[in-house]
Design a protein that fits this description.
The chain is mostly beta strands. It has strands at residues 2-15, 22-27, 30-33, 38-40, 43-51, 57-66, 72-77, 81-83, 87-94, 97-99, 103-112, 118-129. The protein is 0% helix and 66% strand. A hairpin with a 5-residue loop joins β6 (57-66) and β7. The termini are far apart.
Length: 134
Amino acid sequence: MIRNVWGVLCRDIITDQESNSVSYIRCIEEGFARDLPVRIGPMFLGTLWEKNGEDQELIRFRVVLVSPDKTVKAILQTNPITMDRPRHRLHFRLKSMEVTSFGTHQIIVEYKQGEEWLQASRLPILIRKVEESS
């Protein structure tokens, strides 16, 4: 069984080849728009997962965008990924997404090991309206 330790939305991810340490650059938690609809992204979703036990596990991942009005849009779905180590860092590149309303949107990360999709994390992105100055 796996569990999501953390997730972060950002503009860039840099991995140091010598130390394997990662830098998540320009993290994203909100944005501004004058008019809608607007496209946000592309961006990256950095995640860390832990696996129990010694056995390899075959897992699929998917990411969806939920608007404030509860509209759900699929963003990506992976082919099965083999997890064979106790910890796995997975980075997903999210293409640009159309946003049609102001308010808090949710990036939801799900995984599937058996028959059903399980929610791993929910990352909010607040889209605010730029106020016109007089």
